[in-house]
């Protein structure tokens, strides 16, 4: 069998040590891989490359299509973009898979029965990184959620459940508040779930869902969620399972995939042969499955489980009375190598059967191509930076001022401040900042308006000496409003 080329980055902090340990185990387990090494992270950032990755490294990733990455340190201060987010988005790594498993009674945990997988959307949400300072007081971050993005991740979660013989997929979202963005995620989940009748589907509002996951993780199986919720909750899940140092992660794209630990570069532990290599190692096991080398994945994973069972633990999971021997990074890796061919005796041994099927299904994103709906412009929200020195009671003042620019077939229908209606009929108790949303619609009920009317309106606002900082068009799609109606309406 021929070797498969992969790209490897040793990273920063504890990165080089845990990568060396991981590769030592993989090689001893007979991994059929040829390694291309690239430099990423702190050194590259500090050499003046704000993305932390050199152009020739992209070439390697596009050539091998498989990336085993140790954690890196993003330098403090502005101007340095997160390499992880850049790689995930640039290469379309749309699904982030984070298994969180407890290893009771060998690793101390509050949750003896825990074996869940978080499937996190990896390309959009607030992680689009589109942010602005708009006024003296207000900064804004765009939360972008697309239908294909939702379809890709929700379908991936169900396909993952099917291929890995999981029983349930649970979605977390906050659609009681974010009716458009999280509402779309929920609708897509409800559309796709019935296509998988053998898999139970349920959903929770993310706040109570997160509380339940932290309290009774045994009730969850596969969880699917948007980028930010998934980022936060996968760390929670890994930590309550035993340690963030124990969880690996796969970032799956249509053509290229990246495998890593979920934790960071832990600079305080660097260079001391202390770090637990298990997170990166389990990421590399997911990589071996992806590379269709189930024999290697099974051999190495079972030896690793046996090492945990034998009580050979790094400092982060070492506990008197539970553990037997406290070891460093290198010794832990050697202990796994020494156990290759052995299986765990109490923990369930791993079988990576039929992985060809899993690997193939894992890669291909599935989304529908739909006929665009009928879209009609019915109004515009003009955001205005205006400040009269008062945190209370100025809704009436700005409302009256904005009414002066009515005309050309459009009129002001409401003003809100941070989403709360303050005009007409605002409440004097509402705290207001210098950022006002002024909604204009046709002065003839339900009529569509034109872009030219919007431009004329902006000209009148400009002539009135008001600072408009952003506009959002209000569209109906197939006759249904494609915008939030605003509190108080
Ligand atoms: P971190 O995850 O690096 O470390 C937090 C703490 O967790 C450590 O101090 C250590 O006590 C423990 N820990 C983490 N991994 C461990 C391991 N393998 N073995 C033993 N203990 C471990 O988080 P941080 O300190 O907030 O971030 C440090 C740096 O890592 C930052 O520069 C951050 O940007 C970066 N980071 C990188 C990635 C990545 O490359 N994937 C992810 C997260 C953070």
Topology (elements, then pairings):
Elements: E1 4-9, H1 15-28, E2 33-38, H2 42-46, H3 55-64, E3 66-69, H4 83-90, E4 95-101, E5 115-121, E6 131-133, E7 139-141, H5 147-163, E8 168-173, H6 181-192, E9 200-205, H7 206-215, E10 222-225, H8 227-241, E11 248-252, E12 257-261, H9 278-290, H10 294-309, E13 312-313, E14 325-326, H11 329-338, H12 355-363, E15 375-385, H13 395-403, E16 410-417, E17 420-423, E18 435-442, H14 451-463, E19 467-477, E20 480-481
Parallel strand pairs: 1-2, 1-3, 3-12, 5-10, 8-9, 8-10, 13-14
Antiparallel strand pairs: 4-5, 4-11, 6-7, 11-12, 15-18, 15-19, 16-17, 16-18, 19-20
Helix pairs in contact: 1-9, 1-11, 5-6, 5-12, 7-8, 9-10, 10-11
Residues 14, 18, 71-74, 84, 244-245, 260, 263-269, 275-276, 279, 316 line the site of nicotinamide-adenine-dinucleotide.
